[in-house]
Amino acid sequence: MTTTNPPGGYDGSPTGVDLNAYPAAAKLVQRVGEFMHEVKDLTPGKDLESHLNANYGPGNAFYEDFCTLVKKGIEEGWAASGELDGPKYRRGRISLPTPETLYMSITTVYFDTTGGSGIYAGQYHKHPYGEINCVVPIDPGFELEGLPVGERWQGAGWTSLPAGSHHYPRARGGRGVALFFLPGGRISYGARVGEPQPVAG
Which Pfam families does this UniProt record tie to the protein (predicted)? Predict the structure, then answer.
């Protein structure tokens, strides 16, 4: 397994993408806002993850739009634009928390696990208020790990991690993107490996 632990932050689009310059990015933010209004009363964690995979997975209009627009962003260069470990691990914020997104930030992380040991681990971090991940495969076999570590891998669909959880974001199976949403934009890169996980979730 390959791991990396670059400095915290967003080398690509730290304050968000210029939505006036990229219509597809503006459309993505709009669709995320509409999606958030549908799930606004649900809490990040296992129950939300199950709900999203049952109701908002492949074939759902939101999921399909997210995949189409994120892939467009990779092609146009506005999604996951900041290299953290060369071109194989990139991150970029699409939007800061806004009233339109119900104060959820929008970020993309690109993984390319080809040519490595099979599993790539990104930067260790904690989710003070939880996290919602839309898994966008570019290669059909791409998967993103959820929790518990080593037990939960998700291809096309969703993962959701509870408040206080922490992990190495791990991917396998080729190229793909994690489109993730953070309540209040909160993420911590000061988490320590081995800290206990929250009891719930």
Answer: PnbB
pLDDT of the residue at 12:
64
Integer Cα distance of 169 and 181 in angstroms: 14
Helices (H), the chain: 23-39, 46-55, 61-76
Q: What is the pLDDT of residue 11?
A: 53
- Residues facing 132 on adjacent strands: 160, 181
Pick the CATH number of 21-183 from 3.20.20.70, 2.60.120.10, 3.20.20.140, 3.40.50.300: 2.60.120.10
Asked whether 123 and 85 are in contact (CB, 8 A), the reply is: no
pLDDT digits (tens, 9 = 90+) for 16-60: 999 999 999 999 999 999 999 999 999 999 999 999 999 999 999
Rounded Cα distance between 151 and 68, Å, is: 29
**Which one has a higher pLDDT value, 178 or 116?**
178
The beta-strand segments (E) located in 122-172 are 125-127, 131-137, 143-145, 153-154, 157-161, 165-167, 170-172
